[in-house]
Design goal:
Blueprint lengths: L8 H8 L33 H4 L20 H15 L5 H8 L5 H16 L4 E6 L2 E6 L4 H4 L13 H13 L2 E2 H8 L4 H9 L3 E6 L7 E5 L1 H6 L11 H5 L1
Antiparallel strand pairs: 1-2, 3-5, 4-5
Helix pairs in contact: 3-5, 7-9
């Protein structure tokens, strides 16, 4: 009768499917049978140079901020603002232009924008500066909209279904508002509509209600203002005008 063969720790680990320790991990246990080098006396080369150990000088800023950009000369300011607005491709706030140009005040930016708009209108250009969502952007003139429409690019409002438009309208006028209130007004469930509007970044979660369960509250976004050409929510048409 053959006696059972004793298993070694190595074979037991292999049979249990234990993964080999990572040799690069200093916290990993030593591999059985591996030679562990003896710790010798610390070498002088291990010591860090004196200048590497020295920290920042007392009172010095460890991460100093970069100096502000050099403002453009007065005779170039208007052209610089015009270049930024045209190159942005999206809404650009006057405060952002001020920071990019290294100006101390936003007033020169607003004056330059007004001068640019007047110059474009005097030249009868096909583009103009539109104020929207607290900033400005370059758009084509409304009277040329019929020709631009031939490109086949529909506005955001035209790409929304009736269900999405109804849900978005309720949130715009009732915000902050919860899902239960939206569904009470619409008379149907609106979970899918809310998710779609959140994905399109037209809505956002603005908080939670004090009601039991603390449901989410929804509100509109800056993208909503841009999509519908609004400078602020107060420019929304009155509900009575919509019914008329």
């Amino acid at each position: 009768m053959a006696l059972p063969r004793e298993s070694s720790p190595e074979s037991a680990a292999e049979g249990a499917g234990v993964a080999d320790p990572d040799p690069c991990d200093p916290a990993a246990p030593p591999v059985p049978g591996a030679q562990v080098p003896e710790a010798g006396p610390p070498q002088a080369a291990d010591a860090a140079p004196a200048d590497a150990e020295a920290g920042p000088e007392p009172g010095a800023d460890p991460d100093p901020e970069p100096p502000p950009p050099e403002p453009p000369p007065p005779e170039v300011l208007e052209a610089a603002v015009e270049a930024l607005v045209c190159a942005a491709g999206d809404v650009l706030r006057p405060e952002r232009i001020r920071d990019l140009l290294g100006l101390a005040s936003v007033r020169p930016v607003r004056e330059a924008l007004a001068a640019i708009q007047a110059r474009w209108r005097a030249a009868d250009l096909a583009i103009e500066i539109e104020e929207v969502a607290g900033g400005v952007r370059v758009v084509t003139r409304p009277d040329l909209g019929a020709y631009v429409a031939r490109l086949g690019r529909k506005p955001v409002a035209d790409r929304l279904s009736r269900s999405l438009l109804e849900t978005l309208s309720i949130v715009a006028y009732k915000q902050p508002v919860g899902r239960a209130e939206i569904e009470r007004i619409r008379g149907v469930q609106c979970g899918e509509a809310l998710r779609a509007l959140l994905d399109r970044r037209l809505l956002k979660v603005v908080g939670r209600s004090d009601q039991p369960g603390r449901p989410l509250l929804y509100g509109t976004t800056q993208r909503f203002l841009v999509a519908f050409g609004l400078r602020e929510l107060s420019e929304l048409p009155a509900p009575g005008d919509l019914r008329a």
